[in-house]
Amino acid sequence: VKGIDAQPMSGLYDEMLRRCQVVVLPQPKGAIGKEAAAALEEFVRNGGGLLTTHDSVGYRGQPVLMAEICAGGVKHVRDKHWIVVAEHPVTKGIPRGQQLPHAYYDHIELKCGPKGVVLAQAAESGKPVVVCGRFGKGRYVACGLAIGLNAETKDAAPSGPERLLLENAVMWCGRGE
User: Fold this and answer.
1) Dist. CA 89–CA 49, nearest whole Å
2) How far is CA 154 from each of CA 21, 25, 121, 158, rounded to the nearest angstrom?
3) pTM here?
4) pLDDT tens digits, residue range 61-103?
5) Beta strand 70-77 with 138-143: parallel, antiparallel or unpaired?
6) C-alpha–C-alpha distance, residues 64 and 81, integer Å
Protein backbone atom coordinates (compact mmCIF):
# COMPACT_ATOMS: atom_id res chain seq x y z
CA VAL A 1 0.00 0.00 0.00
CA LYS A 2 1.35 3.42 -0.89
CA GLY A 3 2.81 5.10 2.17
CA ILE A 4 3.23 1.89 4.18
CA ASP A 5 6.57 0.07 4.32
CA ALA A 6 5.69 -3.22 6.03
CA GLN A 7 8.45 -5.36 7.48
CA PRO A 8 8.38 -8.51 9.64
CA MET A 9 9.64 -8.19 13.20
CA SER A 10 11.98 -10.62 14.92
CA GLY A 11 10.55 -9.91 18.37
CA LEU A 12 8.64 -7.55 20.62
CA TYR A 13 11.40 -5.83 22.57
CA ASP A 14 12.50 -2.19 22.97
CA GLU A 15 15.30 -2.21 20.39
CA MET A 16 13.04 -3.69 17.69
CA LEU A 17 10.05 -1.49 18.57
CA ARG A 18 12.13 1.71 18.37
CA ARG A 19 12.54 1.03 14.63
CA CYS A 20 8.77 1.05 14.07
CA GLN A 21 6.05 3.66 13.77
CA VAL A 22 3.23 1.10 13.91
CA VAL A 23 3.11 -2.53 15.00
CA VAL A 24 0.41 -4.87 13.72
CA LEU A 25 0.05 -7.77 16.14
CA PRO A 26 -2.11 -10.50 14.61
CA GLN A 27 -3.32 -13.51 16.54
CA PRO A 28 -0.12 -15.17 17.78
CA LYS A 29 0.58 -18.90 17.91
CA GLY A 30 1.80 -18.61 21.50
CA ALA A 31 1.23 -16.31 24.44
CA ILE A 32 2.77 -12.84 24.49
CA GLY A 33 4.86 -12.57 27.65
CA LYS A 34 4.73 -9.86 30.33
CA GLU A 35 7.94 -8.24 29.11
CA ALA A 36 6.66 -7.99 25.53
CA ALA A 37 3.32 -6.62 26.75
CA ALA A 38 5.09 -3.96 28.84
CA ALA A 39 7.34 -3.06 25.88
CA LEU A 40 4.31 -2.65 23.61
CA GLU A 41 2.53 -0.40 26.10
CA GLU A 42 5.67 1.73 26.51
CA PHE A 43 6.04 1.90 22.71
CA VAL A 44 2.51 3.30 22.35
CA ARG A 45 2.82 5.59 25.38
CA ASN A 46 5.88 7.16 23.70
CA GLY A 47 4.12 7.82 20.39
CA GLY A 48 3.96 4.49 18.55
CA GLY A 49 0.88 2.94 17.06
CA LEU A 50 -0.47 -0.54 17.71
CA LEU A 51 -3.13 -2.59 15.97
CA THR A 52 -4.07 -5.92 17.55
CA THR A 53 -6.35 -8.47 15.88
CA HIS A 54 -8.46 -11.41 17.08
CA ASP A 55 -6.99 -13.06 20.23
CA SER A 56 -4.25 -10.40 20.49
CA VAL A 57 -6.89 -7.99 21.82
CA GLY A 58 -6.51 -9.72 25.20
CA TYR A 59 -8.32 -13.02 24.85
CA ARG A 60 -7.54 -16.74 25.43
CA GLY A 61 -4.38 -16.18 27.44
CA GLN A 62 -3.16 -13.07 25.63
CA PRO A 63 -2.47 -10.05 27.84
CA VAL A 64 -4.83 -7.09 27.88
CA LEU A 65 -2.92 -4.11 26.51
CA MET A 66 -3.93 -0.55 27.35
CA ALA A 67 -7.05 -1.57 29.28
CA GLU A 68 -8.18 2.06 29.38
CA ILE A 69 -8.97 1.70 25.68
CA CYS A 70 -9.88 -1.99 25.36
CA ALA A 71 -10.42 -4.05 28.50
CA GLY A 72 -9.91 -7.25 26.50
CA GLY A 73 -11.81 -9.87 24.60
CA VAL A 74 -15.04 -11.18 26.09
CA LYS A 75 -15.87 -14.17 23.87
CA HIS A 76 -15.47 -15.53 20.36
CA VAL A 77 -18.62 -15.66 18.30
CA ARG A 78 -19.35 -17.48 15.05
CA ASP A 79 -21.00 -14.46 13.51
CA LYS A 80 -19.52 -13.59 10.11
CA HIS A 81 -20.74 -9.99 9.96
CA TRP A 82 -19.80 -6.68 11.53
CA ILE A 83 -21.24 -3.17 11.37
CA VAL A 84 -19.40 0.16 11.41
CA VAL A 85 -21.11 2.38 13.99
CA ALA A 86 -18.87 5.48 14.14
CA GLU A 87 -17.39 7.91 11.69
CA HIS A 88 -13.64 7.95 12.31
CA PRO A 89 -10.43 7.94 10.24
CA VAL A 90 -10.18 4.17 10.90
CA THR A 91 -13.61 3.59 9.33
CA LYS A 92 -13.22 6.11 6.47
CA GLY A 93 -14.71 4.81 3.23
CA ILE A 94 -16.45 1.86 4.91
CA PRO A 95 -20.26 1.94 4.80
CA ARG A 96 -21.83 2.69 8.18
CA GLY A 97 -24.86 0.90 9.54
CA GLN A 98 -24.84 -2.11 7.22
CA GLN A 99 -23.74 -5.69 7.74
CA LEU A 100 -20.27 -6.34 6.33
CA PRO A 101 -18.76 -9.82 5.91
CA HIS A 102 -15.41 -10.85 7.31
CA ALA A 103 -13.32 -13.70 5.92
CA TYR A 104 -12.67 -15.69 9.10
CA TYR A 105 -15.42 -17.85 10.61
CA ASP A 106 -15.61 -15.98 13.94
CA HIS A 107 -14.60 -12.79 15.70
CA ILE A 108 -13.82 -11.68 19.25
CA GLU A 109 -16.28 -9.42 21.02
CA LEU A 110 -14.55 -6.73 23.08
CA LYS A 111 -15.08 -4.87 26.31
CA CYS A 112 -14.50 -1.18 25.65
CA GLY A 113 -12.38 0.59 28.25
CA PRO A 114 -13.35 3.98 29.73
CA LYS A 115 -11.16 5.89 27.24
CA GLY A 116 -12.01 3.74 24.23
CA VAL A 117 -14.22 4.58 21.27
CA VAL A 118 -16.34 1.83 19.70
CA LEU A 119 -15.97 1.94 15.91
CA ALA A 120 -17.67 -1.32 14.91
CA GLN A 121 -19.87 -3.94 16.50
CA ALA A 122 -20.97 -7.51 15.91
CA ALA A 123 -24.01 -7.72 13.62
CA GLU A 124 -25.86 -10.25 15.79
CA SER A 125 -25.12 -9.14 19.36
CA GLY A 126 -24.29 -5.46 18.92
CA LYS A 127 -21.17 -5.94 21.09
CA PRO A 128 -17.98 -4.03 20.17
CA VAL A 129 -15.56 -5.68 17.72
CA VAL A 130 -13.33 -2.66 16.92
CA VAL A 131 -12.27 -0.16 19.58
CA CYS A 132 -9.65 2.58 19.43
CA GLY A 133 -8.14 5.39 21.44
CA ARG A 134 -5.11 7.45 22.29
CA PHE A 135 -2.67 6.18 24.89
CA GLY A 136 -0.01 8.62 26.01
CA LYS A 137 1.45 10.06 22.80
CA GLY A 138 0.40 7.06 20.70
CA ARG A 139 -2.68 5.35 19.32
CA TYR A 140 -4.17 1.90 19.72
CA VAL A 141 -6.75 -0.06 17.71
CA ALA A 142 -8.09 -3.35 19.09
CA CYS A 143 -9.84 -5.33 16.36
CA GLY A 144 -11.64 -8.58 17.13
CA LEU A 145 -11.67 -9.58 13.46
CA ALA A 146 -9.01 -12.04 12.29
CA ILE A 147 -7.88 -9.87 9.39
CA GLY A 148 -5.54 -11.87 7.16
CA LEU A 149 -7.09 -15.28 7.82
CA ASN A 150 -9.72 -17.03 5.73
CA ALA A 151 -12.48 -19.38 6.93
CA GLU A 152 -10.04 -22.33 6.77
CA THR A 153 -7.56 -20.55 9.08
CA LYS A 154 -5.09 -20.02 6.23
CA ASP A 155 -3.25 -16.77 5.56
CA ALA A 156 -5.16 -14.73 3.00
CA ALA A 157 -4.88 -11.15 1.82
CA PRO A 158 -7.78 -9.13 3.19
CA SER A 159 -10.21 -7.61 0.75
CA GLY A 160 -13.13 -5.21 0.73
CA PRO A 161 -14.03 -3.53 4.03
CA GLU A 162 -11.51 -5.65 6.00
CA ARG A 163 -8.66 -4.44 3.77
CA LEU A 164 -9.78 -0.84 4.10
CA LEU A 165 -10.12 -1.16 7.89
CA LEU A 166 -6.57 -2.55 8.10
CA GLU A 167 -5.08 0.18 5.91
CA ASN A 168 -6.96 2.95 7.70
CA ALA A 169 -6.01 1.61 11.14
CA VAL A 170 -2.32 1.45 10.25
CA MET A 171 -2.38 4.99 8.84
CA TRP A 172 -4.28 6.37 11.87
CA CYS A 173 -2.01 4.58 14.35
CA GLY A 174 1.04 6.00 12.58
CA ARG A 175 0.02 9.60 13.13
CA GLY A 176 0.68 9.72 16.88
CA GLU A 177 0.19 13.10 18.56
Assistant:
1) 14
2) 27, 17, 24, 12
3) 0.96
4) 999 999 999 999 999 999 899 999 999 999 999 999 999 999 9
5) unpaired
6) 24
